[in-house]
Design goal:
Layout lengths: L2 H17 L11 E6 L2 E8 L4 E20 L6 E9 L5 E7 L5 E3 L5 E3 L3 E18 L6 E7 L8 E4 L8 E6 L2 E8 L4 E4 L6 E8 L10 E7 L2 E8 L9 E6 L5 E8 L3 E9 L3
Parallel strand pairs: 8-16
Antiparallel strand pairs: 1-2, 1-6, 2-9, 3-7, 3-8, 3-9, 4-5, 4-8, 10-19, 11-12, 12-19, 13-18, 14-17, 14-19, 15-16, 15-18
């Protein structure tokens, strides 16, 4: 990287940290803007080459990805990428989405773009190298990474349990005891509808001193449709444990454990507002 390009990269990283814009990869020349409802958003092209990010933790990120497709298309498209984080095992992210209406690019007016595939990524304290690798080389994907904030909730919180038979266990973290349930790899746990309530997910992983980067990957589904992935690298000591939050609809939702380095425990809460 020449001196001028390095200086531009440094200024962009500084701007990102101060004003909460999209995180900028080292490949700053791969920038492309998408416009929806007269709002312009900055993305970066993941195509033949990787995208490399340097990110300070602890931080919760949202990785938003879209595939470039023919503007007139009306079918579903597969797309995704490989998430490479330091010395952890590579993580595959796969989406399948329809075209998003009224979304276009000034640079490529003949292209359409899919609905967003979303991944929540939780990183622990420290400086981290994050790499996104194309899963389908030759199939252009646009990537946007931003900080993800969860709103504060007010009201009464209640533990909700899946429809399947599970064993509730009392776990202690940071001198606090809470009820969790274990989720096994490739198992799908289903929950009844909780219309228009905030649903919060808390996750813990059994520590393994042999593995330096303990992690797990969840898929969240709403009415049997993929809502997002959650990839958690937080360590139990430095994390408050909340890994995901969403406003529920009058449809069932479910959780699937895709991958993990160790046993994973979850706690799901619904928030009932004060009357």
């Amino acid at each position: 990287m020449n001196q001028n390009l390095y200086y531009k990269y440094f200024l962009l990283i500084l701007f990102t940290s101060l004003f909460g814009k999209a995180f900028i990869p080292k490949e700053i020349n791969y920038r492309e803007s998408l416009i929806l409802n007269e709002k312009e958003r900055e993305y970066f092209l993941l195509y033949k080459d990787d995208l490399n990010y340097q990110i300070s933790g602890p931080v919760r990120l949202e990785i938003i990805s879209r595939r470039a497709i023919p503007e007139s298309s009306n079918r579903k498209y597969n797309f995704g990428y490989i998430l490479s984080y330091e010395d952890a095992d590579d993580i595959e992210i796969n989406h399948r989405k329809y075209k998003k209406d009224d979304l276009f690019s000034k640079e490529h007016p003949g292209h359409g773009y899919t609905q967003a595939g979303k991944t929540i990524l939780n990183l622990p304290p420290g400086e981290h190298n994050l790499k996104l690798i194309p899963s389908y080389r030759g199939k252009p994907i646009l990537i946007r990474i931003v900080k993800k904030m969860f709103k504060n909730t007010e009201g009464i919180t209640e533990l909700i349990l899946p429809d399947e038979d599970i064993i509730v266990q009392e776990l202690q973290f940071n001198n606090k005891k809470r009820n969790y349930f274990e989720i096994e790899k490739n198992s799908l746990l289903s929950f009844k509808p909780n219309s228009n309530l905030d649903i919060s997910f808390y996750g813990r992983i059994e520590k393994n001193n042999v593995v330096s980067n303990n992690f797990y990957q969840l898929e969240i589904l709403e009415n049997n449709r993929q809502k997002c992935f959650v990839v958690d690298f937080y360590d139990n000591e430095s994390s408050k444990g909340k890994i995901f939050q969403f406003k529920s609809k009058d449809v069932p939702f479910s959780i699937k454990l895709i991958e993990s380095s160790n046993p994973v425990y979850l706690r799901v809460l619904k928030n009932i507002p004060y009357e």
